Amino acid sequence: MDLKTLYGDNADLTALTARINALEKRFETVEGAKPEHLFSSSGRAEILGNHTDHNHGLVMVAAISCDILAAVSVRADGIVKIIADDYPPVEVDITDLDVKPEEFGTSNALTRGVAKGIIDRGYKIKGFTAYTTSNIFKGAGVSSSAAFEVLVAEIFNSLYLNGKLTAVDRAVISQYAENVYFNKPCGILDQSGISIGSLVKLDFNEPTKPVIEKLDPPAGYTLVITNTGGDHADLTDHYAAIRKEMEAVANYFGKKVLRDVEYSEFIEHVPALNRHFSGRAIMRAMHFYAENDRVIAARDALKSNNVKDFLKNVNESGLSSLILLQNCSVPGDVRQPVVLGIEYSRRIIKDGAVRVHGGGFAGSILAFVKDEEVSDYVRDMSKLFGAENVFEANVRRVGTVKIY
Fold it and tell me: Is the dihedral angle over the CA atoms 71, 19, 64, 86 positive or is it negative?
């Protein structure tokens, strides 16, 4: 695949080529032979649809211009060996696919889970050796774990299945690996955005068969993602509570997820719900319905080239996450870096939008900034959070892919 097709017309091809050459040389130096293939799997940016995918809602997500590169060669045995430049090495025997609690939270678990998900579909696969390097932004919530899962799925798919797995198949298998083997109750937004590529609206009414609509990003704007600080490691319970509370409200109506409850029925029963649930649970359900409407409105705005309305919906999504979803700070944390970053951004962006990015509670915010204002915005946010925590990105048109 041509590098400009993958990384865009404005990509620094000299730097990209140097990065690829260094990875290939590292593989050859250790393994004694050149790699047979090169793969790329990007990070992702959640544009709209904050915590709606797990209740079968609507989302807008984009693959972005940072990635994991993998130099790969096939193996004749059932061993998967992955050597990363910034993570512990992975070695998994895919003839042993039992869930291993001692592997929870590790790349070994993700690799084993992806292999299991593929084999359970009736496919036969063997091992591979991969060396990887990543420039996915650290701590910015752009989903390096999902990039890794989908990468492993596509390596198996390309090497042994002749590309039979669709982008959605790879996303579903990757989510399974993260839920069951990694032990994280995530939805499927991250995996879908990375696997499909581009800026897309996704309807998860049937989660394993999402309706996909590709869109053009707003012209003249750059995505800027800022890591405001905080550790995601201890936030799993906070993330899980959002899903549990939404689903508890749905269960009141005899349904599993909020998507199956009509908004008119929900709003009519708010007084009754208040006798059974916390106000937070009810407001999180309110967020779900309003966020779905915003995804549709933002889609329509992009299709009609109405950038103002698109940005309006992104801003309103951020306010809804703050007030209704309540995932912009950890309860009891008076530092509140995400909220500070959002409110500071609102005061220094002249014409754009800003919102919490991803799971929330700690971590990152996302801003759409006019191209001519980007340098000033990056400068100001760097003063607040450090230059190493502010990242510019563009929408990547291609999902996880084999380059050669």
Answer: positive
Using an 8 Å Cβ cutoff, are 185 and 202 in contact? no
- The first and second tokens of residue 187, run together, are 């939805």
Rg (CA), the chain: 21
Query: Which tokens go with 329?
Result: 């700070």
Tokens of 141: 């919530």
Measure the CA–CA gap between 295 and 213, rounded to whole angstroms: 12
Dihedral sign for Cα atoms in the order 83, 89, 95, 99: negative
Q: Residues 365, 367, 371, 376: is their CA dihedral positive or negative?
A: negative
H helix intervals, 227-349: 236-252, 263-268, 270-273, 279-303, 307-320, 337-348
d(CA 152, CA 338): 32
What is this structure's pTM? 0.87
Three-state secondary structure call for residue 136? coil
DSSP 8-state secondary structure symbol assigned to residue 395? B
- Could you read off the pLDDT of 268-319 as tens digits, one per residue? 999 999 999 999 999 999 999 999 999 999 999 999 999 999 999 999 999 9
Model confidence pLDDT, tens digit, residues 129-138: 999 999 887 7
- Closest residue by Cα to residue 288 from 45, 60, 46, 55: 55
Give the number of other CB atoms < 10 A from CB of residue 174. Answer: 33
Q: Give the rounded percent of residues in the chain with a pLDDT score beyond 70.
A: 98
Alpha helix stretches (DSSP H) within 126-209: 144-160, 167-176, 189-196
Strands 79-84 and 90-93: antiparallel
Reported as type and span, the H/E element at residue 222 is strand 221-227
Collect all residues with Cβ–Cβ distance below 8 Å to 331 and sequence separation of at least 6. Answer: none
Secondary structure class of 384 (helix, strand, coil): helix
